[in-house]
Structure to design on (396 residues):
């Protein structure tokens, strides 16, 4: 007798928690995900800031199909000249400031973090790294060692040494960045801490302190990049330019893709002395790069980053004063709906599900709902989502 998919999922697929969401996906279309019974749900989290163009965007599917007919993997990263990789790297060099003209492709966010840390340590000949408390940068050893919360790092000991922490938005803490610090890694809007926005001038102060001390600024835009906060990259709103920029999540248009991007001068430390100093088999997979380039084109042509700002305004107007909410926080379509009563978090998620909305919470913030719908969501659909959210919050 065959077991149900759900049972097989729990039994044979490695789990990340004893209580997974368990939504049984049938298919996706636009902003909708359909369950096995054919019920539509509006995706208000985009697979944690990945599906920014919704599900099954025809242009992304075409780009993947076109590349599929030409070739898949041909050789480990960095040896063959693959058109989709080069085209995407060129496009990034066009879009980004001149200092960020060299892209090292990876398959995931955490791998981009690892590459950036390694490059920064090698470039500066220093080993100390500063990270922010309550940041999440990934689950591989180096990225995991950047975490500040004891519960999580307890299981990962011994950690990679040399990490110090500062509080996000604490200007006084910036003195901890010294001429011993190789790099500070920071998110322009903290994701898993609950969509925490930088205070006015904070990232500028971080940048200045890095200049003073010869420290590299690594901006983790794995969640904030690709238009989510209202500009293609969140740093554009802060008048800072990082030394190393990290991308992943929405970067691959729904396929696995990450990158760390810097000047050629910094990047060179990974290809010289020793040569082959940093390797990956699948980094910059041709299918992912083809989809990623098309994703950037769609974002640009449809002005989706700017639209995220006008949609944010509507959401704030409709929800900010709901009696169950303390605040609507975040930037663009990277929002947190903070509940007055933290006990309401899981009932709120459930009530939203009953209304046909997929929402979620954050790793380090157990009193806020995550709200990060696909950037292609229309104004009409935003109004519908706000009405459904209001009904769900009314029921608490
Ligand atoms: N940095 C940030 C800001 C993230 O949100 C995440 C994933 N949630 C990562 C890094 C790690 O990315 P990945 O899961 O692709 O390894």
């Amino acid at each position: 007798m065959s077991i149900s998919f759900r049972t097989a999922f729990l039994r044979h697929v490695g789990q990340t928690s004893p209580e997974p969401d368990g939504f049984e996906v049938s298919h996706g279309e636009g902003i909708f995900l359909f369950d096995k019974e054919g019920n539509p749900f509006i995706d208000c989290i985009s697979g944690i800031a990945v599906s920014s163009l919704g599900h099954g965007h025809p242009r992304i599917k075409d780009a993947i199909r076109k590349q599929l007919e030409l070739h898949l993997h041909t050789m480990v990263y960095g040896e063959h000249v693959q058109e989709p990789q080069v085209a995407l790297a060129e496009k990034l060099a066009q879009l980004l400031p001149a200092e960020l003209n060299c892209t090292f492709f990876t398959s995931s966010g955490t791998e981009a973090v690892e590459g950036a840390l390694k490059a920064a340590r090698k470039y500066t000949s220093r080993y100390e790294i500063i990270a922010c408390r309550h940041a999440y940068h990934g689950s591989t050893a180096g990225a995991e060692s950047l975490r500040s919360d004891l519960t999580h790092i307890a299981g990962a000991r011994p950690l990679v040494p040399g990490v110090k922490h500062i509080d996000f938005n604490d200007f006084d803490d910036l003195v901890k960045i010294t001429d011993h610090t190789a790099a500070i890694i920071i998110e322009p809007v903290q994701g898993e801490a609950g969509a925490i926005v930088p205070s006015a001038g904070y990232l500028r102060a971080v940048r200045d302190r890095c200049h003073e001390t010869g420290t590299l600024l690594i901006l983790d835009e794995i969640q904030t990049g690709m238009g989510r906060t209202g500009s293609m990259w969140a740093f554009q709103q802060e008048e800072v330019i990082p030394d190393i920029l990290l991308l992943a999540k929405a970067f691959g248009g729904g396929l696995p893709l990450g990158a760390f991007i810097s000047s050629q001068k910094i990047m060179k430390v990974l290809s010289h002395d020793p040569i082959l100093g940093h390797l990956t088999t699948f980094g910059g997979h041709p299918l992912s790069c083809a989809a990623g380039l098309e994703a950037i084109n769609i974002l640009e042509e449809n002005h989706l980053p700017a639209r995220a700002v006008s949609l944010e305004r509507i959401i704030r107007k409709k929800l900010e004063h709901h009696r169950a909410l303390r605040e609507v926080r975040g930037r663009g379509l990277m929002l947190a709906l903070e509940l007055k009563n933290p006990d309401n978090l899981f009932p709120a998620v459930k009530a939203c599900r009953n209304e046909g909305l997929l929402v979620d919470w954050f790793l380090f913030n157990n009193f806020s709902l995550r709200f990060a719908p696909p950037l292609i969501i229309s104004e009409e659909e935003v109004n519908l989502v706000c009405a459904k959210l209001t009904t769900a919050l009314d029921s608490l």
Observations:
- Residues 96 and 350 are 41 Å apart (CA to CA).
- The pocket of 4'-deoxy-4'-aminopyridoxal-5'-phosphate is lined by residues 48, 108-110, 113, 136-138, 187, 191-192, 220, 222-223, 248 (CB under 6 Å).
